[in-house]
Design goal:
- The structure is a single chain.
- By secondary structure, the chain is α+β, with helices and mostly antiparallel strands.
- The chain has 14 helices and 42 strands.
- Strands 6, 7, 8, 9, 11, 12, 14, 15, 19 and 20 form a ten-stranded antiparallel beta sheet that branches. Strands 21-22-23-26-27-28-29-30 form an eight-stranded parallel β-barrel.
- α6 runs parallel beside α7 and α9 packs parallel to α10.
- The longest helix has 19 residues.
- The chain is globular and about 95 Å long.
- The structure holds alpha-D-galactopyranose.
Amino acid sequence: MIKQISGGFIIEAGNSTMLLEVNEVQKPVLAYYGPKMKEPESLTAFKTPYGTAMGTATLYDEKKAPTLTLDQLNLEISTPYKGDYGSPSLLLEGQSSPVYDFVYQSFEIRKPEPLPELPSPHDAEEELVLKLADPAQKVEAELHYLTYKDSGVIGRYLKITNQGEPLDIRKAMSLQIILDGEGFELVNFYGTWSGEFQKDITPLNHLRYSFDSTTGSSSARHNPYFIIKKKETSYQAGGCYGFNLVYSGNHYEEVEYSSFDKLRVQTGISPLGFKKTLQKGESFVTPLAVLTFSDQGLNGLIHVMHDFVNAHVVPQEFAYKARPVVFNNWEGTFMKFNERKLHSLVRKAAAIGAECFVLDDGWFGKRNNDKAGLGDWTVNKRKLPHGIKGLCSYVHKKGMKFGLWFEPEMVNPDSDLFRAHPEYAIQDGIHQPCLARNQLTLDLTKPEVRTYIIDAVEAVLKSAPIDFVKWDYNRNMSDIPMNSGTFFHDYILGLYQVVGKITSDFPKILFENCASGGNRCDLGMLSYFAQTWVSDDTDSFERAKIQDGMVLGYPLSVMSNHVSAKISNQMLRKTSFDSKFDVACLGILGYELDLGSLSKKELSNFKQQIAFYKAHREVCQFGTYEQISTLEDSSFSTKEAHNAKEAVVSRTVGICRPVPSQESLFAIGLDPNADYHYAIRREDLDLRRFGTIVNYVLPIHLKEEGALISFIAKFKSMPCETLEGDMSGAGLMGGGLKFPMLWNGTGYSDKVSFMGDFGSRLYLLSRK
Ligand code: GLA
């Protein structure tokens, strides 16, 4: 709900209320943002008292407000040189005075309009436009506030229109909000390839903090999602604010505590390499930022963000639609495959219950390694004599959907495309462009390049009834062209045009976003592609940490997770297939390994895993998520997804202790008065995990890692601990259920849990 009230405006979103005041000097300021409240009649009680002008205060307008200085206002937009000495959210450079002073003129409450050329979440309900202007400079600024049906999220963006002399925009943040009070902390997500979404928590001092992406994409280095929380806020209680950008390019976030304990928060396009010139009559619209408030701790924030992405961000065609269990051949074959090998994988994938077979990199051009072929999107007939159509039909006959990998924004210098059109690649014309993974980025600011990509991808999609596309993007940008004030931004606008066209021409195809894993994982890409490959790191322990970070802002239904070989390609760490499953199953489950090298027992285990997942897919993909503990604050990462029917709890341990403590489950969100049946998902443990201690109980002597134990292990395994019974929701939430104690070096029984370092377990709580 958005309404004008005396002195300003009220915006109600979910369980939050925002009050915006237009004050006596016509500046829009934040009067309140917090728990939902009864609609006040006026904003009088929420006004900041400007008792006296402090020593060095610069008085904005002595006549209208004798004690008021901009420095002490919670400004919704800030420009320099008028007494606000914090970081400006808008920086303009014109022909004459550097002073731009925007004051309120009028407002409009309207049916929301989508942002031009940029992704806009759907089902926006209402939009408030605050129209400001600097009449002396003839520049207008509009502050836009959007609400979304049944959502606690508020959308924000800025539009600048120049009616005067040409000017340059040097910085234009989508959102500025200033919060009052001490003791705030910043939670941000940094990372790298194979180590995305690492969580940092920084107590904030009276400094300016910033993070950004300068790689050309939203990047794994700093995801645009971040949180401001009170020091005492935990997952389960306390106040916190979440911020994100619906944008896939270079972004910039700034958090600054003023000397008056006002916390200024900004997010928008990165000012690096950004200079937008506006001629008279021209406008610039920033990408949309989204924000939310929760007084129910970080889990409360998670609920609002997950619902928002599920209901308003991902393409409507796929909103709340079950995602298929994928088999992907990448780590199983890399680019070394032929039709026979793929057919055999297809049969095995179908037999274990996979629902979509995805052919990854290596099917096109002269793509036998990553040195050649990108850009040439025609099938390699040596590998696939019956083409994509032939393979697609084989997969369909085996009862699965068919998916195909593309990396359309890239080109290898060793490709027909580059030989014919070197000018399609991004380069500055005077330096040798840097290669990354032997490739260059195509210049999507050029219309002919966009047309090439659309035609090339669509030709393949038209050639066979393809159901799924994995769209990859595997390098960061360098060597950007000269005189390109908005190159990075124009690239992203070009990308949105390309993916907008292809996804609307093929609305039934499910697209998976990928950028070497999570190097472009953001709400912009999710507006076109309903799911995203979280990380190339499929080591289950690392993955648990990555997923624990990502899930703070992105729902399970977009997180694509694969079970891969036991020894992870990325860490060379060994974890069991079951641990991998226990981590992968909160999200979209997939498999990515050579099924041909597995034993019957292992394949039958996969079959059981997939059957379990299908039976509980609804809660695994769309359940309400609760983080119970993290590896930062305990030895376990424990989380849960629940719906009215059941809850799935996944638990991963870090390094086991020699004398483990007794742990209990503290479930969240169950019905306290209902009865539940709880049960561990039974797993078989590899005999070899027990080393030479098996000799303690066996009549024969087995050598550690010897041929005999390896042979026996093919058929025989140890059952994991048991845990099964009934308990009320209240008991399960109150710590009534005790986990079996971890292995402590002596004695193994069904009441001892041998998780081993980095192991995981899964528990099902079914409402009776
Ligand atoms: C990237 C992706 C992988 C795989 C390879 C193929 O690294 O993240 O999943 O598709 O490219 O080259």
